Amino acid sequence: MADGGAFSQMTAFTPSQETQRAFRDALGRYATGVTVVTCATPDGPLGITANSFASVSLDPPLVLWSPAKASRRFAAFEAAKRYAIHVLGEDQTAVCNQFATNGYDFDGLDWAANDDGVPLIHGCLARFDCSFSAAHDGGDHLIIVGRVLSAEMRDGAPLLFASGRYGRFTDAS
User: Does 12 reside within a domain?
Assistant: First the structure.
């Protein structure tokens, strides 16, 4: 058998309060796409950057995302019956950062509200207009499942997030 290669460099731990940073770092080894989720609120349009997005079902068309319960924007998204999930392209790091810090900051963006008042950001790689379908407890997050009512997409490469950094897709050699 080989000398272990990369496996000999593995660090084992049991997820706990004391190893929370290591657990977060291990999760960060999985690259994800980056989204901005938007909804209408009594205070105006609201957005939040999220990388916890996944497809669930093709029939019916379902997707999920998971906002943190500790977020100041949590209550608005938990209550939203309609929302949009915007998949960001590799050229949209600024949009990602804009909603990571201030959910009401739509300044400088090309956007319009749909018939339900949900803000739709133009120019994203893909967009899913959703209605609330279900919610499930997920520890310190809430798993929100939405039924996709309509979708749009364009050609382009996705903005990726891994190990605490943003990046882009490159072809393997």
Answer: no
Gap between the Cα atoms of 2 and 24, Å rounded:
30
Angle at 65 (CA atoms; ends 126, 77), nearest 5 degrees: 100
- Whether the full predicted model's pTM is greater than 0.85, yes or no, is yes
- The pair of structure tokens assigned to 108 is 């400088």
- H or E element at residue 147: strand 141-153
**Tokens describing residue 8:** 């000999």
- The answer to whether residue 10 sits within a structural domain is no
Q: Mean pLDDT of residues grouped by 10 in the chain (173 residues)?
A: 61 87 82 94 96 95 97 97 97 94 93 96 97 97 97 95 82 71
Tokens of 64: 């999920």
**Domain range holding 133?**
32-160
